[in-house]
Prior knowledge:
Elements: E1 13-17, E2 22-29, E3 32-38, E4 58-60, H1 91-141, E5 147-149, H2 151-157, E6 164-168, E7 171-177, E8 183-189, H3 196-207, E9 217-223, E10 228-234, H4 259-279, E11 283-285, E12 294-296, E13 302-304, E14 311-313, H5 334-337, H6 347-362, H7 365-368, H8 380-389, H9 403-419, H10 430-438
Parallel strand pairs: 3-4, 5-9
Antiparallel strand pairs: 1-2, 2-3, 6-7, 7-8, 8-10, 9-10, 11-14, 12-13
Helix pairs in contact: 1-3, 4-6, 4-9, 4-10, 6-9, 8-9
Family: Belongs to the protein kinase superfamily.
Subcellular location: Membrane
Membrane topology: Single-pass type I membrane protein
Amino acid sequence: MFAFLVLISISNSFCAESDDNQQYVSCNNPLECVNVRTPLPPWQFTVLPRKFMVPSRRLVDLDLRALVAVPGPSPAPNPSWITTPNPDPNNGYYQASGVAGAIVVFAIVVVVPCLIICCLRRRRRRSNLDDFQADEILKSYGSIAPRRYTYAEVKKLTKSFKDKVGQGGYGLVYKGTLDDGRIVAVKVLKETKGNGEEFINEVVSISRTSHVNIVALLGFCYEKTKNKRALIFEFVSNGSLDIFLCNKGSSNTNCHLDIGDLFPIAVGVARGLEYLHRGCRTRILHFDIKPHNILLDEDLCPKISDFGLAKLCKTKESIVSMTGMRGTVGYIAPEVFNRCFGGVSHKSDVYSYGMLILEMVGGRREEFLDGTSQSSENYFPDCIYTELERRSEGLHMFGEITREEEDTIHKMITVSLWCILTNPSDRPSMSKVIEMLEGSLQSLQLPPKPSLVLPTRSPQESSHSESIPL
């Protein structure tokens, strides 16, 4: 291979040719000449110490190795007439830089893609394992397990989520129709906590409940890879109790429930809670009893819904462990937001039930829910307790009512005041509540006067990893 030399400004040069090579001689001054021959041997620069017949001039051998690199085949042994200069001291630096660069390129091109592929495969393996575990759990429950729907099926039965009928802190609710023609409510969850096994176990536990006063869970959707979860309930036509309770000055035209309608609703909710606390194989604590979560069917039969803050525990457990607060301001038991009042248990649901009944008979939500009246003078339970103490004068705050209606209201208020006692151990169980509601008024005694207990900060709607958003 021929080599072409690029030299810095060689002046006074001339070329002499022979049969097999060319010689370049540069004379920069009268006393020095540079003699270079081409072609060069491979990987070498040759400076020939040839005696060039120039009178009174000295021949200088110039090493051009550092100026030009000439590629070629593997080098042959140097002839004896070739001088080999000392290695360049910078060669070690460039070699180290080259090795480091090669390592970086190798890592980018090979190692990083391999790591990404491994992570994706591991995530897919975990998702497949979750789906496998979900299927195994469902098989273990046999025929009592709810039906599992794909997300595509959920989208189809809701007509691509066309008819929105409600929303909550855990997702949107859509109206849908099953293949057999049944109308259902589909709740698409926005965010859930806990792994798939916990979700499936709790869904199955809730679905095993069968009570006229508990909304029925008909199916669910769980797709780990797409992070899609939905719950399918029976559709309750009249909506929530909330829209039937009138505040002062409300323009709601649905406020037509009298005490004859409200009392059966109160008893029905009590029966539903008693079933959750004692009738199930696993005790279910709701932790969010309020009018919005009580649905009414066409016959005004109440159904407890929205188990978004529910906690499962063993039937024999009297106290449950729970981190943080949960519930809605105005219905939260004191021990839920401050453990100084006692341990959290099924008695916390009893407190919420008592506040629900007070709201049903009083219709005074704007005074104890909006936070504007937090003094003892305006505390609604305190006001209604004072009203009962002077019952001989009549329950004037309820307007014109019959004697029978007055007795019913008196009974409901007395039971609710027992339910909202500050000390959880002083509250009755839901079984006792039903007994009091269905018993005679004469057998009931007024409890101690209630005291005002309010949370010092806003509660978190959900703060436990095991809560199930139903």
